[in-house]
Amino acid sequence: MAIKVKIADIKTVFLNLLMCVVIFYAVYFIAVSLCIGGFRIEDIDSLLAPFDFKTSPSWTNSKYVVNLISAEVTFFISGLMFALIVEEWVWDYAITVTLIHVGLTTVVMSEFPSADHWWISIGSGLSVMAFGGQLLAYKLFKNNFIYPVLEDF
Fold it and tell me: Membrane spanning segments where (predicted)?
């Protein structure tokens, strides 16, 4: 039993992944900008906000609240938008985009994230993105879903 993969399939996957990453960060920066404007914060770097895990977690710290709200909103909206692009494998793209985000965060901040609150935020956001997007994809495209034949395994 050999695995046969067409180059066009790989190109489609990478193109979908590129679109998902661009959508994720576009939504992230829009959400951060709206939160900064909504909370009227002037001392936050909006370019580093998606990667900032060093802000101390406190509900009275408006910088932390902006980072948390924008992250969770981004994960939710991105999952729904991923469903429109990839149609079925939303969970796979959600995990991959989240891993890319963790990698970029490590590069931008020059250290691996060790803050518990950041990992909880990422984990809950990933769950919302994967489940919400997958549910929307199922509802919109359930007639087009490809179900594996388990007798071949």
Answer: 12-39, 64-86, 93-112, 118-138
In terms of Cα–Cα distance, which of 91, 97, 78 is closest to 30? 78
Distance between start and end Cα atoms, the chain? 11
Write out the two tokens for 30. Answer: 């829009």
Task: Give 100-115 pLDDT, tens digit per residue.
Answer: 999 999 999 899 988 8
| Three-point CA angle 131, 137, 139, nearest 5° | 100
Cα–Cα dist 6/30, whole Å: 36
* Contact yes or no for 74/80 (Cβ under 8 A): no
Q: Which two tokens stand for residue 122?
A: 């990422």
Are 126 and 134 a contacting pair, CB within 8 Å?
Answer: no
Reading the block at residue 21, the tokens are: 């990453």
Two structure tokens written together for 103: 């990698």
Answer yes or no: are the C-beta atoms of 86 and 20 closer than 8 Å.
yes
Structural domain spans, the chain: 8-47+57-142
As a whole number of angstroms, the distance between CA 25 and CA 105 comes to: 12
Quick: pLDDT tens for 35-76. 988 888 877 776 777 888 888 888 888 888 898 999 999 999
Q: Tell the residue number behind the tokens 């909006």, with chain if given.
A: 46
